[in-house]
Amino acid sequence: MLHRIEPPNDNEMDASHLLSDDKPKRTAPPLCTLTVGPAQQLRATLGDYPPGHKLRGFSVEINPDPEPEGAIVTQITNLKVKGKYRLVLHVANYGIKTVTATAREL
After folding, report:
1. Calpha distance 100→106 (Å, rounded)
2. 14: how many CB neighbours lie within 10 A of its CB?
3. Do residues 40 and 67 lie in contact, with contact meaning Cβ atoms separated by under 8 Å?
4. What beta strand segments (E) does the chain contain?
5. Distance of alpha carbon 66 from its chain centroid, rounded?
6. Is residue 81 over pLDDT 90?
7. I need a labelling partner for 26 at 20 to 30 A (CA). Which of 10, 55, 56, 72 fits?
């Protein structure tokens, strides 16, 4: 389930279509790992890309399983930065235990 974590602005647009439940086909190194406590929201950059760059997407593995189910919300935003676009992963934990979110490119 996707919810807006932060309000949009003129330099930001949603890019959550890049999130996938697919597992990376190869053992891709993590782009980022976030440890997110209960009632906490964190973000990390997934990289800067030139216009027209084709991405297959990103997988985000959450460990351990959140409680309650569905308590973790992930979102990717696309920020315009100096002629490139910067993808930022947002992770919000509405659950009762700390989780680790690990992002990999597909």
Report:
1. 19
2. 13
3. no
4. 12-14, 19-20, 32-36, 40-49, 58-63, 72-81, 84-93, 99-105
5. 16
6. no
7. 72
Q: What percent of the chain has pLDDT over 90?
A: 53
The single-letter code of the amino acid at 89 is: L
- DSSP code of 39? T
pLDDT surpasses 90 at 31: yes
Q: Strand pairing of 32-36 and 99-105? A: antiparallel
Closest CA to 89 of 65, 64, 66, 55: 55
Distances (CA, A) of 25 to 1, 29, 32, 33: 24, 12, 18, 19
Q: What is the pLDDT of residue 1?
A: 39
**CA dist list (Å): 16 to 48, 49, 58, 80, 101:** 16, 16, 9, 16, 16
Query: Is the pLDDT confidence value at 92 over 90?
Result: yes
